[in-house]
């Protein structure tokens, strides 16, 4: 089923599907990068965790009525997805302050926001993915006002459901990043991955960071932490 390699990113490879123009195979790599690729390492087995965790997240969201490009996991490291054309913005939703917002705005880590904060970043490696506002989106991309409104509404809806999903496995959803694409009909559709690489997750009892910050901040064994998350999700009926 897997055809030629179409594109290789920092964390995934994208392959064509033979004799099918509407689907793609995403292959999760073992590579970890942080600070826009300045810090790099490879962890044997990481691809499996992100593939299987992301699959569980997209399956849960579908149960809650949120469609995405995800179709099904093909094996430990690959999933079949609907082909979309990515809108070059990254949408970050923050429930609690951590990471770049603490450095950029001097907000103390762990500050809880009264309502979820939605931020937009321009997806452009050469520029280090700068933060942008709505007007920048219209200048830099072909997204319309209606599409941006849909994107933000989906992002907040995903937040509502994922907070509950992760609470079920004793994790606090601190923040996360989403990407969106357009399907063959031009509809906006949730794309990319949702995994501990793209979310901050803190253990509710201990406060332990159980996400890519373990790698960013060199505080422990990334694979051990990702394994714990997958095991917790697998234990949920
Ligand atoms: O680095 P920052 O604090 O802005 O990240 C916010 C959230 O978005 C974190 O969960 C981080 O893992 C995710 N993110 C991502 N990809 C990026 C930037 C941020 O998955 N390029």
TrEMBL record:
Pathway assigned to this chain's UniProt record: Purine metabolism; IMP biosynthesis via de novo pathway; 5-amino-1-(5-phospho-D-ribosyl)imidazole-4-carboxamide from 5-amino-1-(5-phospho-D-ribosyl)imidazole-4-carboxylate: step 1/2
Q: What is its EC number?
A: 6.3.2.6
Molecular function as annotated in GO: phosphoribosylaminoimidazolesuccinocarboxamide synthase activity
According to UniProt, the name of this protein is Phosphoribosylaminoimidazole-succinocarboxamide synthase
Source organism's superkingdom? Bacteria
Key words of the record: ATP-binding, Ligase, Nucleotide-binding, Purine biosynthesis
Q: Name one Pfam family in it.
A: SAICAR_synt
- CDD domains on file: SAICAR_synt_PurC
UniProt cross-references to PANTHER family, sorted A to Z: MULTIFUNCTIONAL PROTEIN ADE2, SI:DKEY-6E2.2
This enzyme catalyses: 5-amino-1-(5-phospho-D-ribosyl)imidazole-4-carboxylate + L-aspartate + ATP = (2S)-2-[5-amino-1-(5-phospho-beta-D-ribosyl)imidazole-4-carboxamido]succinate + ADP + phosphate + 2 H(+)
| Ranges where the SAICAR synthetase/ADE2 N-terminal domain occurs | 5-232
The record's listing under SUPFAM superfamilies reads: SAICAR synthase-like
Keyword presence, S-adenosyl-L-methionine: no
Top-level EC class as recorded in UniProt: ligase
Enumerate the InterPro entries for this protein: SAICAR_synt/ADE2_N (IPR028923), SAICAR_synt_PurC (IPR033934), SAICAR_synth (IPR001636), SAICAR_synthetase (IPR050089), SAICAR_synthetase_CS (IPR018236)
């Amino acid at each position: 089923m897997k055809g030629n390699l179409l594109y290789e990113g920092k964390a995934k490879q994208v392959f064509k599907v033979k004799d099918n123009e509407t689907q793609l195979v995403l292959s999760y790599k073992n590579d970890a990068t942080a600070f826009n690729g300045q810090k790099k390492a490879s962890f044997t087995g990481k691809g499996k965790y992100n593939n299987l965790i992301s699959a569980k997240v997209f399956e849960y969201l579908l149960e809650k009525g949120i469609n995405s490009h995800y179709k099904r996991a093909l094996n430990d490291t690959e999933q079949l997805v609907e082909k979309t054309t990515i809108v070059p913005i990254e949408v970050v939703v923050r429930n609690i302050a951590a990471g770049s917002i603490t450095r950029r705005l001097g907000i103390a880590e762990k500050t809880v926001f009264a309502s979820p904060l939605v931020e937009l970043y321009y997806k452009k490696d050469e520029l280090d993915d700068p933060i942008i506002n709505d007007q920048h989106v219209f200048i830099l991309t072909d997204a319309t006002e209606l599409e941006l409104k849909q994107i933000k509404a989906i992002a907040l809806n995903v937040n509502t459901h994922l907070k509950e999903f992760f609470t079920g496995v004793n994790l606090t959803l601190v923040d996360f990043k989403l990407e969106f694409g357009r399907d063959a009909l031009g509809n906006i559709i949730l794309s990319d991955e949702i995994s501990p690489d793209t979310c901050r997750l803190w253990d509710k009892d201990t406060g332990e960071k159980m996400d890519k910050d373990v790698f960013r901040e060199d505080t422990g064994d990334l694979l051990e932490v990702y394994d714990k998350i997958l095991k917790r999700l697998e234990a949920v009926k």
